[in-house]
Amino acid sequence: MVKIRLSRGGSKKRPYYHIIVADQRNKRDGKHLERLGFFNPLSTAADVENFRVDKERYDYWMSVGAQPSERVSKLVKAHTEDSA
Prior knowledge:
By secondary structure, this protein is of the alpha+beta class. The chain has one domain (2-83): CATH 3.30.1320.10. It is built from two helices and five strands, in the order E-E-E-E-H-E-H. It has helices at residues 55-63, 70-83, and strands spanning 2-11, 14-23, 34-39, 51-53, 67-68. The protein has a five-stranded mixed sheet. The protein is flat, with a radius of gyration of 13 Å. It starts with a strand and ends with a helix.
């Protein structure tokens, strides 16, 4: 099954996440099919973007059966409501 999930980057105690599409059998930070965006949980400044997702590609992957993780679905839902 194909999942839309977070992949951790950044250094120790400074996490940074990529939103990726990957086979669920692959490791968290392993091989992925496509990178859709990012999430920076430590970004608190108003002028710094802390979340971005390519909504068109996200919708495509959802239409072909990809399942988002719980955290990714909450992030996308929260940020699409803010921009609407």
